[in-house]
């Protein structure tokens, strides 16, 4: 059967659209989604077209690592993910924040879609 026709996760009674493992729940202490940050150089500045989208688990990983000062082991346990997954989430968030800062793009925080 072609790859796109497979039922991923069927043996566990779950279905998701792509290859690989499904997303597991990630525990986020605060609700961040719905927040938008906009860089402003002057009061009448219009919004740039490109908005950087951060998922709230990326912001939570950033908070745990940098504000709380937790180790990867402790932070990943707090979020309920593996250390490798925590590290990927954190790196993704750092890259997006750097992009927003250096290219002066607004960024917004949204819930990660469950697929």
Q: What does it look like?
A:
The protein has 115 residues and is α+β, with helices and mostly antiparallel strands. The protein has three helices and three strands. It has helices at residues 56-67, 72-79, 83-102, and strands at residues 36-37, 52-55, 107-110. Strands 1-3-2 form a three-stranded mixed beta sheet. The longest helix has 20 residues, at 83-102. It is globular. It starts with 35 loop residues before the first strand and ends in a 5-residue tail after the last strand. This is DUF134 domain-containing protein. Belongs to the UPF0251 family. Pfam families: DUF134.
Secondary structure layout plus pairing:
Blueprint: E1 36-37, E2 52-55, H1 56-67, H2 72-79, H3 83-102, E3 107-110
Parallel strand pairs: 2-3
Antiparallel strand pairs: 1-3
Distance between the termini: 22 Å
pLDDT < 50 runs, ≥5 residues: 1-11
Tell me the overall shape: globular
- Widest β-sheet, arrangement of strands: 1-3-2
CATH topology of the domain at 48-115: Arc Repressor Mutant, subunit A
Tell me what portion of residues adopts beta-strand conformation. Answer: 5-15%
The percent of residues in helical segments reads 25-40%
**What is the overall pLDDT average?**
78
CATH class of the domain at 48-115: Mainly Alpha
In CATH, the architecture of the domain at 48-115 is Orthogonal Bundle
Family: Belongs to the UPF0251 family.
Organism: Thermogladius calderae (strain DSM 22663 / VKM B-2946 / 1633)
Protein name: DUF134 domain-containing protein
InterPro entries: RNA_pol_sigma_r3/r4-like, UPF0251, WH-like_DNA-bd_sf
């Amino acid at each position: 059967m072609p790859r796109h026709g497979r039922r991923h996760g069927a043996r566990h009674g779950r279905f998701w659209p792509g290859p690989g493992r499904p997303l597991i729940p990630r525990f986020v202490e605060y609700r961040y989604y719905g927040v938008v940050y906009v860089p402003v150089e002057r009061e009448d500045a219009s919004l740039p077209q490109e908005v950087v989208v951060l998922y709230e688990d990326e912001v939570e990983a950033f908070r745990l690592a940098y504000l709380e000062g937790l180790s990867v082991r402790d932070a990943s346990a707090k979020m309920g993910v593996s250390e490798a997954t925590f590290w990927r989430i954190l790196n993704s968030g750092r890259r997006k924040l750097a992009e927003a800062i250096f290219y002066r793009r607004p960024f917004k925080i949204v819930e990660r879609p469950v697929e």
